[in-house]
Amino acid sequence: MAPVPTLKLNDGNEIPVLSYGFGTANFAGNDEDIAKAATLAINNGYYHLDSAECYLNESGVGAGIKATGVERSKLYVTTKVVGTIEQHVAAALDTSLSKLGLDYVDLYLVHVPFSAGSPEGLQKIWAQVEAVQAAGKTRSIGVSNFEVEDLEIISKTAKVTPAINQIEFHPYSQQREVVEYCHKKGIAISAYSPLSALTAARPGPTDEAYAELANKYGVSEGDIALRWCLDKDIVVITTSKSKERLQGYMTNTLGFKLEPQEIERLNTLGSQKQYRGMGIEFMSKRYGNYKTGQAAP
Predict the structure, then answer these.
(1) Which family does it belong to (predicted)?
(2) Which is it for the CA torsion 217, 220, 224, 230, positive or negative?
(3) How far is CA 182 from CA 135, 141, 252, in A?
(4) Number of domains in the chain
(5) pTM for the whole structure
């Protein structure tokens, strides 16, 4: 099995472009089921694992890592801190590391910007994230669900530029302003929910294009959806529990590239519809959102 290609980050570290995620379908799963999912992913070449404290399943991910016996140096593990203003980031990361059974993570993200209580709170959270990187508890640091405004807020006091911004990204959520800003600043993008145009947001204007391109390249429509992201230099995250699909993404998705006009076709068709999943709304209800005045319960 060929290794997954990597993308070089602004801190010099490299991140595998195909990742297995423990949100959405794996959210709050019991440890045994999550361990099985982690084992399935790792055994099929997904050494980049994407977790978070709020997914409530880091212990299961850790159990799966341990069960495979894969050397730590071969793994790329991401986890996230919610980033509430009262949170002590170093303690939160220590808890995550304990659950994962690791001494460090490869990438540590601030999960959402709006639970910090204020712009100043967000800056303080980022300073704490910089500190855990300096302490060697994480190799790279970044953010998730950040808009341009949020990135500008932390840039005013940051000593370290985020290495990556993980956002919902698919043809119906292209977030062009955010992507353009990040690329200009040297901040990589990773995509969660990259298959939404084929699943939750279907039917839609990209349906015919996906089918035609899948037929042309002899792959699945899911391969086309992931390849569209990869061809934009965007890291993709899948949460499938199907061995066949995971193996297909590993071989088919990584085995071809879309032509520029095909990428643009999906860009154009996707812009005809807007769809965002429930992730941001869920986090706002659970942790509060200072931007909208929504208090945490």
Answers:
(1) Belongs to the aldo/keto reductase family.
(2) negative
(3) 26, 14, 28
(4) 1
(5) 0.95
Among residues 55, 108, 249, 290, the one annotated as catalytic is 55
> What does the angle CA 141 – CA 192 – CA 50 come to, to the nearest 5 degrees?
50
Distance between CA 112 and CA 135 in Å, rounded?
23
Give start and end residues of each alpha helix (H) in 186-240: 207-217, 221-230
User: Residue 287 catalytic?
Assistant: no
Domain encompassing residue 95:
15-162
Averaged over successive runs of 10 residues, the pLDDT of the chain (297 residues) comes to 90 98 75 94 97 94 97 97 88 97 98 92 96 98 97 98 98 98 98 96 97 98 98 96 93 96 98 89 82 80
Q: Which residues are annotated as a binding site for substrate?
A: 111
Q: Nearest-CA neighbor of 281 among 269, 294, 271?
A: 294
Q: Are 65 and 94 in contact (CB under 8 A)?
A: no
Strands 164-168 and 6-8: unpaired
Q: Is residue 44 part of a domain?
A: yes
- Collect all residues with Cβ–Cβ distance below 8 Å to 137 and sequence separation of at least 6: 90, 93, 94, 97, 104, 105, 108
Cite the annotated binding site by residue number: 111
